[in-house]
Design a protein that fits this description.
The structure is a homodimer of 211-residue chains.
Chain A (H helix, E strand, L loop, with lengths): L1 H31 L7 H8 L3 H7 L3 H30 L5 H17 L12 H7 L2 H23 L9 H11 L3 H9 L4 H14 L5
The structure holds a DNA duplex (18 and 18 nucleotides).
Chain lengths: 211, 211
Amino acid sequence: MEPMTARASIRQQLQRVREEAIVVAVNRLLATKGYDAMTVDEVAAEAGMAKASLYKLFTSKEELAGAAMVAALERALDFVDGLRAEAARSDGAIDSLSQLKAVTRWAMLSQLEGEMPALPSQNSSLSASLQANDAYMDKLIALSNKLGIWIADAQARGKLNPALPAELLLYTLFARACDPVVGMLKASGQYTNKQILDWVESATFNGLAAR
Amino acid sequence: MEPMTARASIRQQLQRVREEAIVVAVNRLLATKGYDAMTVDEVAAEAGMAKASLYKLFTSKEELAGAAMVAALERALDFVDGLRAEAARSDGAIDSLSQLKAVTRWAMLSQLEGEMPALPSQNSSLSASLQANDAYMDKLIALSNKLGIWIADAQARGKLNPALPAELLLYTLFARACDPVVGMLKASGQYTNKQILDWVESATFNGLAAR
DNA sequence: GTCTATATCAAGATAGAC
DNA sequence: GTCTATCTTGATATAGAC
């Protein structure tokens, strides 16, 4: 009996490694080309296996995208939790606005490095399947809740504009994670990543108008 | 000879009407579903003709999209020219920042009404063909130049943040025309169009942070 | 369990009748 | 000039050998 479970465990680990390779490939392709332009052939090639093998682990292209989106949300949640832990250690020296700015910068940097899968534009066939994906929805709601707490706090303290609905603030932060402006500035090739992040952060929180 | 030219002119007008019906249909579909999800069958159905007839007037799906994008840029240029005329009449009472805000609101309202075709996300097969489309590029550059003049003026007068590169300001205004936040707020169904426009305009120019 | 080869299908594009 | 019917292609998904 021991050998059997050991063998099973090894198999599971191998399978897990292959699954992760696939998810990484999907993530990169979603970030660079988007869902529609991504083909399953490309995913298989990049993950180093035949397409049929891939379909043993994931039953559809939509499921592939779902797994990559879940992984991206997990990274975001990890980052947010890291910030919370840091803030707890710093004993109140880090306010919620700084944390929101840090998440925004992290998301934009991920985009610049080709690691942030693009949000499904509404009406895509993808968005329907994502909304039916429990793992995805759970993570999305968890992330929204954690950001929502910071937003409410920042508004209550007068750091974020209290006249704006919290919903708009949340959506805007999500939108920055796949803001085309970031990619356009990078494509122009004249600026460093730090400049781009500083400017877009400034534009997001302080606005385009002079203060 | 007269009858022939008269007949030809009538034919041309009929053709033109049909072309416009097609462009309107493409525009609506691009605004609601995006390029990839839009099918030529849908376009033909919505324009009220067979697909083969449509292909007599436009040689490819990419050309369809190009024509719709050109029409959208022409609407934007018309609106901008209208603002310039108005400002000329008002004798300096309307400053460039107000004009930029007005264009932004107009673009977002067009989006809310399903009349603003979505910008091609980079790396799309569409963006390559658009960059090879002279009519499109001419209008795009013309619009960028006119907005660029307002931007430079507003920065020189200290109305727009002079620390931000003009390129970022321009890209940001274009991005607002297809900002997913606008659609998400509308989808929530709780807000009027005016509220949405006011809030997103405020977020864009004044920032999310309290002033 | 993995791969080669193939089925299936949707969508862009066209032929040919009228 | 317009339409019906068809071609063609590219991509998702699967069958079956090993």
